[in-house]
């Protein structure tokens, strides 16, 4: 795979935040992180709060520049690039956020929510037709276009957010915890939808999550972050079946499992690595 | 004789009925999991038991605790029980704790109110309680403010406060939902151990069936403000009978950290949970249910058989008549 240009290449990336007013210690959100995402891959970035996964997503989206290292998209360095030179990149890489309550403007009709990115990127498409197509692709009726986002349930709103991200026909979808705010019964619907869209539109997926069960179901490769370090990466099944690092083992052991008799308090997971609490 | 007996509980907000006909019991020392999604009425049920329903909400029916009806009590009498014999742990410890007061004072407050101990004694006890919830330097943490703590630490403070007066029952409303996975594990293990040590009963409210199966002895499933099924964890996990419990379980089993991706679609429930007042007539799950029949236009009665109770006209694994026949 060495001579194929990866979709994303993250090389030696560090990000340090200086506290406001330069007082107190600086925060090293990411430390010398390297990995790549191949075309058509579905990569999970896994970690808990403070792991640096949100920082990493902002670097992949070129919303921030790394303190050291480079982020490349299809062989071209995008980190630190001027916004004017990112227009094409902005079309190719889209994001779905965690909470569709706050990511969709409640004063805009669904039609405008879906048309806004098309207008902003000056794409030459028939707006009405594209909006209908997008709603169909997320299994929503065309009549939804005339309503406001607040009139829909959380799951339907996440469908609208996904449709909005698909509007510019992106190559990469970055999804930041897209199902963690949803009810259990709706979560499966949205995951099924995402799976279908990723294969139907040949999307490359970057999925940011702390939920190992969802990651195992949806992603083919995994990157595990812990306090800014990339601690382990690999094929999903290898990593779940034989995790090498203590932190990955703890993450997997900590996830609750359905059992017919209660088992908590066995203390199996305590004291493996320093608690993040 | 059960410790806590909720009987025909109804919670209303003006013309809207949010919870109705809720019946369940918690025995002394027993751990019961109350399962359901947002809008199922599980948190309202807990708040009604605590007497903490917000303005405009009212509860009817009975909540019997140690043979007294809590709903018939005066606010003064309820205050004496609240935080004392019945304690509650909330989902968001940041909003449950007072941001302007030190951790030690807040844990000590419960003791000072209910045990009338001196300030100094209460402070000493608070430090001991913080040590019991695994703070390595309890004296130092007692002097801190909530904003200086992580989410997991704050939830441990809530647990310290809840066990301070040796309660008979702890109500925990999604106590680990807002926490990271490894922190959730630690808090669950801690709660599990302390409930054991205290010998108190636990009513654990959760949307995650896996969490409940690990911690509880019994499960009560709610949907649309009603109890639809209850039974022992083994019964519910091995042989769910209500189509809603069955569907939740199928999703949870397929979407498990222990389960490799099969490539197939996950089992899911069509539609979404309606908002209050928009549930269908009859069985609240009727319009999302793949087993619904004409009879579902009527609310199914709760049929009890031994440890199990079920409200469904067409349950999984055979008709309801087999259950009804046994009663």
Strand order of the largest sheet of chain B: 6-7-8-3-9-10-12-11
What CATH first level of the domain at 8-99 and 172-254 in chain A would be assigned? Alpha Beta
Number of helices of chain B: 12
Instruction: Give the fraction of residues assigned to helices of chain A.
Output: 25-40%
Give the helices and strands, then pairings.
The complex is a heterodimer of chains A (277) and B (327).
Chain A: E1 8-17, E2 27-37, E3 42-46, H1 53-60, E4 68-73, E5 76-77, H2 87-92, E6 93-96, H3 100-103, H4 110-120, H5 127-137, H6 154-166, E7 172-176, H7 184-200, E8 204-209, H8 212-218, E9 221-226, E10 229-235, H9 236-241, H10 246-254
Helix pairs in contact in A: 4-5, 4-6, 5-6, 6-7
Chain B: E1 4-13, E2 16-26, E3 31-35, H1 42-50, E4 57-65, E5 68-69, H2 75-81, E6 86-89, H3 93-96, H4 103-115, H5 119-132, H6 138-142, H7 151-163, E7 169-173, H8 181-198, E8 201-206, H9 209-215, E9 218-223, E10 226-232, H10 233-238, H11 243-254, E11 303-305, E12 308-310, H12 320-325
Parallel strand pairs in B: 3-8, 3-9, 6-7, 7-8
Antiparallel strand pairs in B: 1-2, 1-4, 4-5, 9-10, 10-12, 11-12
Provide structural commentary.
Chain A is an alpha/beta fold and 277 residues long. In chain A, 33% of the residues lie in helices and 22% in strands. Chain A has a domain of 175 residues: P-loop containing nucleotide triphosphate hydrolases (Rossmann fold, 3-Layer(aba) Sandwich), CATH 3.40.50. Chain A has 10 helices and 10 strands. The longest helix of chain A is centred in the last third of the chain and has 17 residues. Chain A is globular. Chain B is of the alpha/beta class and 327 residues long. Chain B is 35% helix and 22% strand. Chain B has an 8-stranded mixed sheet, with helices on both faces. Chain B has a 4-stranded antiparallel sheet with strand order 2-1-4-5, with helices on one face. In chain B, helix 4 crosses helix 5, helix 4 packs parallel to helix 7 and helix 7 packs parallel to helix 8. The longest helix of chain B is centred in the middle third of the chain and has 18 residues. Chain B starts with a strand and ends with a helix. Chains A and B meet through helix 6, helix 7, helix 8, helix 9 and helix 10 of A and helix 7, helix 8, helix 9, helix 10 and helix 11 of B.
């Amino acid at each position: 795979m060495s001579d194929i240009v990866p979709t994303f290449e993250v090389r030696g990336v560090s990000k340090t935040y200086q506290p406001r007013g330069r007082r107190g210690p600086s925060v090293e959100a990411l430390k010398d992180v390297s990995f790549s995402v191949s075309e058509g891959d579905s990569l999970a970035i896994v970690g808990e709060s403070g792991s640096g996964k949100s920082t990493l997503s902002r670097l992949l989206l070129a919303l921030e520049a790394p303190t050291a290292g480079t982020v490349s998209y299809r062989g071209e360095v995008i980190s630190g690039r001027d916004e004017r030179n990112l227009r094409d990149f902005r079309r190719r890489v889209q994001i779905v956020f965690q909470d569709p309550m706050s990511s969709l403007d409640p004063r805009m009709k669904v039609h405008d929510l879906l048309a806004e990115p098309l207008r902003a990127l000056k794409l030459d498409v028939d707006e009405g037709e594209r909006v209908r197509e997008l709603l169909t692709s997320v299994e929503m009726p065309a009549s939804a276009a005339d309503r406001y986002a607040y009139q829909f349930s959380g799951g339907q709103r996440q469908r609208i957010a996904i449709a909005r991200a698909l509007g510019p026909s992106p190559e990469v979808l970055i999804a930041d915890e897209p199902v963690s705010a949803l009810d259990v019964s709706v979560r499966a619907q949205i995951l099924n939808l995402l799976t279908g869209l990723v294969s139907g539109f040949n999307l490359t997926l970057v999925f940011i999550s702390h939920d190992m069960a969802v990651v195992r179901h949806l992603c083919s490769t995994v990157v595990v972050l812990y306090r800014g370090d990339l601690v382990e990466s690999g094929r999903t099944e290898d990593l779940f079946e034989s995790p090498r690092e203590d932190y990955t083992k703890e993450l997997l052991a900590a996830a609750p499992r359905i059992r017919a008799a209660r088992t908590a308090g066995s203390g199996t997971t305590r004291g493996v690595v320093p608690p993040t609490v | 004789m059960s410790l806590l007996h909720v009987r025909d509980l109804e919670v209303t907000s003006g013309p809207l009925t949010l919870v109705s006909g809720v019946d369940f019991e918690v025995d002394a020392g027993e751990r019961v999991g109350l399962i359901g999604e947002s809008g199922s009425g599980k948190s309202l049920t807990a708040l009604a038991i605590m007497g903490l329903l917000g303005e405009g909400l009212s509860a009817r029916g009975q909540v019997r605790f140690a043979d007294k009806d809590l709903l018939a009590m005066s606010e003064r009498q309820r205050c004496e029980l609240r935080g004392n014999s019945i304690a509650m742990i909330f989902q968001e410890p940041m909003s449950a704790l007072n941001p302007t007061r030190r951790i030690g004072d807040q844990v000590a407050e419960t003791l000072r109110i209910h045990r009338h101990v001196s300030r100094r004694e209460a402070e000493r006890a608070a430090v001991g309680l913080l040590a019991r919830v695994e703070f390595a330097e309890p004296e130092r943490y007692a002097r801190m403010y909530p904003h200086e703590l992580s989410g997991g630490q704050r939830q441990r403070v809530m647990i310290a406060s809840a066990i301070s007066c040796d309660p008979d029952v702890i109500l925990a409303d999604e106590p680990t939902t807002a926490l990271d996975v490894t922190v959730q594990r630690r808090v669950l293990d801690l709660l599990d151990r302390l409930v054991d040590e205290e010998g108190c009963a636990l009513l654990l409210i959760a949307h995650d069936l896996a969490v409940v199966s690990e911690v509880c002895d019994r499960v009560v499933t709610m949907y649309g403000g009603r109890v639809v099924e209850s039974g022992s964890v083994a019964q519910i996990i091995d042989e769910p009978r209500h189509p809603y419990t069955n569907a939740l379980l199928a999703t949870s089993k397929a979407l498990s950290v222990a389960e490799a991706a099969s490539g197939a679609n996950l089992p899911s429930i069509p539609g979404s949970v309606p908002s209050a007042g928009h549930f269908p007539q009859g069985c609240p799950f009727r319009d999302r249910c793949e087993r619904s029949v004409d009879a579902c236009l009527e609310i199914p009665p709760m049929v009890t058989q031994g440890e199990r109770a079920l409200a469904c006209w067409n349950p999984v694994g055979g008709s309801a008549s087999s259950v009804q026949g046994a009663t």
